[in-house]
Every structure is written in structure tokens, then in C-alpha cells.
Amino acid sequence: xxxxxxxxxxxxxxxxxxxxxxxxxxxxxxxxxxxxxxxxxxxxxxxxxxxxxxxxxxxxxxxxxxxxxxxxxxxxxxxxxxxxxxxxxxxxxxxxxxxxxxxxxxxxxxxxxxxxxxxxxxxxxxxxxxxxxxxxxxxxxxxxxxxxxxxxxxxxxxxxxxxxxxxxxxxxxxxxxxxxxxxxxxxxxxxxxxxxxxxxxxxxxxxxxxxxxxxxxxxxxxxxxxxxxxxxxxxxxxxxxxxxxxxxxxxxxxxxxxxxxxxxxxxxxxxxxxxxxxxxxxxxxxxxxxxxxxxxxxxxxxxxxxxxxxxxxxxxxxxx
Length: 320
Fold this sequence. Notes:
Strand content: 15-25%
Protein name: Butyrate kinase
Radius of gyration: 18 Å
Largest sheet: 5 strands, mixed
CATH class of the largest domain: Alpha Beta
CATH architecture of the largest domain: 2-Layer Sandwich
Strand order of the largest sheet: 3-2-1-4-5
Helix content: 25-40%
Low-confidence stretches: none
InterPro entries: ATPase_NBD, DUF1464
CATH superfamily of the largest domain: ATPase, nucleotide binding domain
Distance between the termini: 35 Å
Mean pLDDT: 95
Number of helices: 13
CATH topology of the largest domain: Nucleotidyltransferase, domain 5
């Protein structure tokens, strides 16, 4: 009875097998170049259920039922691949593996609609996975999750075990790799593409100045995200996860009570959380976590909350 969680990270893909408590990791560049080999590896695991690889998220759906429009909504890329993910998704569908999509924060009915105004990325599906892992690991149900990854930072507010708000990696504060939210005046001077989303972070800032990367400066931006979530959930507990969680812990701990998300200690918390969700969706040990997060009740589309006066500036009319 193998349950598998997959996280398509900026730097690497993680595949976590729940029963073995074992992580398999692949460079994202390798998956992009040879998605068939990666999916063949998944097939050899012979999973009873898998979850993940959902990008910006989609209400729970079996990969076998995915349409081209679904894949676009998860990746926001019609052609090619988004870190190889589109090709992997299509291959899993062709192989008819029993994989499920995972919603993003914007799809969750536990988040009020007014908090979703003109947002697409309030926390991608992998951030929901990390929240599921945190609920499985800790007794607390009220906290702020700060995911500090190689590419992006995201902040999720949980109240009574439910996600009630979030700031996504591409809509918040500068991270290690990404500019995240862009000054509107700066955007008017640029040709904004996916390449821009993966540029302009603190890594570039310090490299431009031939200076050593400052985790203290990095932590200041992270604290801004945490304080933004504190406006919604007035809690002092912060759960840190992601590649750079340990590097910023001491700075965040000066202001908040901090716990590191360790999970099963594989180092890929989102993959572990995806495996927990796969287990819960198939009626396993973690069914209660899936129910508490109301994942099966997730609905809608990432474009549902874009106001009509902004939609007219889209290159193509957004459709759900």
C-alpha cells in the first residue's frame, strides 16, 4: 500500500514514499530534460495513491481526468514545461497512475473571497502540503507557516486547523531567488515573463554588489510576511519550513515563538505533506488532516477573483 508525494521544487524534485519514510531527489534540470525517465521511476514504485505536481493548484481531481485547460491552470503555461512539470503531468496521465491534484490556497473555501481579490498565487499547492505536514506534526491548530525555499517565500495563516489566508511566493516579499511582487511602476517599464518571476531576489542583489549573502537582511523580509499574516491570525507561533528555515530561525525567534517543521526529516517537507494528502484522500491514516483542511470542498479557478477592469489588460481572455 504505497502512498507517494511529489514536490516539484525550483531546484529539485522530491518524491517521498510514506511507508518507507524515504525521499528520492532529482535535479529539476534532469526532470526537464527527461520527464519520461522520472515518470518511469514513479511507475516502478507502483503507488496505490500519489499527490502533488499541482503548481498553482486545482480542486481535487484524478490525473486521469485532467484536461489541457486543467494543466494550463496548474502551470500557467500552454506550451513547453514549467520546470518540466507540464510534461510530467501529461505522462502520468498517459500512464494512468492514481495521482491526485492538490488545491492552492486560493481554491480553499476556508479563505474568505475578499482576501482573494486580484490574486492568483496566495500559496501554491506545495504550500498547502507543508501546512498539512505541520498539522500532522504539531498539536497546535493556530499558527503562521513561513515556507522559506530556494526560489520563493510564502506565508500561510491557520486558524482552528484551517487555512484562512496566504501570501504566495510570487505575490509577496523578495525571496532568495525571486523579486516576488513587483513595483507596478517598475513593471510598466519591463517585459514581464516567467523569467522575471525567477529573477530579482536577494541573491542577485548581493551578487551585484559583490557582497556576502546576508541572512539577517533576508530575515527582515520574512518578518514582513509574518507580520502581514498576523493581521489575520493574531498568534505568536510561527512554523518555519523550507531550505533556509534554519538560517533565519534565530532572527525570527527574536520576535516570535518558533518551531521548525521537521516532518519525517527527509528535508523535503512539501513532498512529505503531499504523501500525507495522498494517504488522506485514499482513506488512510491521515484522512482527518484532509478533512480538517477541507481539501475536497475546494472549488473554483485561479482567475475567479481578478476584477473585470484588470482582466481587460490580459494578453488573452482568462478562462476557467
